[in-house]
Design brief:
Layout: H1 3-15, E1 44-46, E2 53-55, E3 82-85, E4 93-96, H2 122-191, H3 197-238, H4 245-261, H5 270-291, H6 295-318, H7 338-368, H8 378-381, E5 385-390, E6 393-398, E7 402-405, E8 408-417, E9 420-424, E10 436-443, E11 448-456, E12 459-466
């Protein structure tokens, strides 16, 4: 008699026990599914996937009666059936029933093979599984620590970008005011080219007086802060190497934080007093020119006034009122050419304003960029380069930049979807499309290019590891259980 036929008779007797007080047991079925194999009152059983009914004895009879193969879980008769491996001590699983009794051990407990003896390897596989799980979770943990550090550094870079944006915005506001004043001045000069220079000079001097008072108030506020800081330092020095030093130091730090939080309001821009001084000297020159009888006398007056201008300006700089960064604009061509000078200043202001507005737009776009889960990493990762030699080529991946194969551009960053970065519009292939690349990033403890594959002509698939791709959701819990009645399918 054929060996498999002998097995069938033994299997039929052992796997089908009539429903008496004894517990039903069917080969290839988990205990949780045994209730699906109860016969009806006539002793017949209905296929799980259809209305066909068969005798209970036809289950596991090595003949496929049900279209879904549910009547042959413990034989290889049905190509679409499934066999349950209990795998005590490891993880229960299902295998295709056509692999039952094929003399290859698929279940670690050997329950799928009755024709050959299979060694029970469930304990060893459980130990290997535990080690693999522990290694995986440790990698995720280490990667998350690095990622958290990157997130913190990225947050600082974002603060710096926001601070720079605010600074540029403030400069734009101040420059717009300066531009408006210059426009008004140009308009007034054009409308009253023959206006009384003495009247204009009087207004200039009044402006300078107001500017000086504002600057003195501002200087006094800074002096008060300086005095407060000196007092704090004196107190710290007196308490040094005493029992009260730490308390005094903490109190001093708190006091300084309070002082620092009280921002000194800038009352007047240095550029304004510079322009007011320049305007006053120009109008003095105009008066001198209007009243001078001889050309030589006018030149002497203009030189003397120019010396006065620089002496006043130097004194204001030494006194700390006027910024030394104010350009040392010459007073040549003042007087009758004052309108041209103001117009030139206006043109320069318009150019500077345009440049600042471009910078502001770029900073705003950077602050508003979104990168699908990497928003809190973007600023730190941008420009970070990873490279590896694969075959005859050196591949370089620049996060949010480009991808290179030696010196050949494989594409520039265009979009991100989860942990996948897309690079397009690279160097054109000969007789083909523009090169492009997709970078698939998985969790790792360092940036590393794992593999490079040209999936299609000039389309590259690059696998990487990086802490950037790590997340708490990647931690895995053990599938090992005390009991195996409710298995997870592998």
């Amino acid at each position: 008699m054929h060996l498999k036929s002998c097995f069938f008779l033994a299997s039929l007797v052992s796997s089908l026990i009539p429903f008496t007080n004894a517990k039903l047991s069917i080969r290839g079925i988990s205990e949780n599914e045994l209730h699906l194999y109860k016969p009806n009152a006539e002793g017949r059983w209905k296929c799980l996937g259809s209305d066909i009914t068969i005798n209970l004895e036809q289950i596991n009879d090595d003949y496929c009666d049900c279209p879904d193969g549910s009547d042959e879980p413990g034989t290889s008769a049905c190509s679409n059936g499934k066999f349950f491996c209990k795998n005590d001590g490891y993880i229960s699983k299902y295998i295709p029933s056509n692999r039952v009794d094929d003399t290859k051990c698929d279940c670690c407990d050997g329950s799928d093979e009755s024709l050959v003896k299979c060694e029970n390897t469930c304990k060893e596989e459980a130990e290997n599984y535990k080690r693999s799980l522990e290694k995986h979770n440790q990698l995720v943990s280490d990667g998350l620590k690095i990622r958290d550090d990157w997130v913190a550094q990225s947050a600082e870079l974002k603060k710096e970008a926001k601070k720079k944006y605010d600074s540029v915005t403030w400069k734009i506001t101040e420059l717009e005011k300066t531009k408006q004043n210059l426009e008004n001045t140009v308009k007034a000069l054009k409308e009253s080219a023959d206006s009384d220079s003495r009247s204009i000079l009087s207004n200039d001097l009044e402006e300078i007086k107001v500017d000086l008072y504002d600057l003195l108030d501002e200087r006094n506020e800074y002096n008060e802060r300086l005095n407060a800081l000196e007092n704090l330092l004196d107190e710290i020095t007196l308490q040094y190497e005493t029992d009260n030093f730490e308390a005094t130091l903490k109190e001093a730090i708190d006091s300084w934080e309070d002082i620092r939080s009280q921002n000194v309001k800038k009352k007047v821009a240095s550029e304004k007093i510079h322009n007011d001084l320049k305007s006053s000297i120009a109008h003095l020159a105009r008066i001198a020119k209007e009243e001078a009888t001889y050309f030589g006398f006018f030149k002497k007056i203009e030189k003397d006034l120019t010396d006065v201008y620089w002496n006043v300006k130097r004194s204001l700089i030494d006194f700390g009122i006027l910024s030394p960064s104010i350009p040392a604009t010459s007073l040549k061509n003042t007087g009758g050419f004052y309108l041209e000078n103001v117009q030139s200043d206006l043109d320069e202001a318009e150019v500077e304003l345009e440049e600042l507005q471009k910078e502001q737009t770029a900073l705003l776009e950077e602050l508003q960029e979104h990168h699908n889960g990497w928003d809190n990493l973007y600023r730190f990762l941008k420009g970070m380069t990873t490279e590896r030699k694969v075959g005859d080529y050196i591949y370089k991946v620049v996060f949010f930049g480009n991808v290179l194969q030696n010196s050949v551009d494989l594409g520039n960053f265009v979009e991100q979807n989860g942990n996948t970065l897309k690079y397009s519009n690279g160097q054109s292939c000969w007789n083909g499309p523009d090169r492009s690349a997709r970078v698939f990033v998985e969790c790792g403890i360092e940036n590393e290019i794992v593999s490079v594959l040209e999936a299609q002509k000039c389309e590259y698939s690059i696998k990487m590891k990086s802490p950037a791709a790590c997340s708490a959701s990647q931690f895995q819990t053990s599938l090992l259980k005390n009991g195996n009645d409710d298995p997870d399918e592998l």
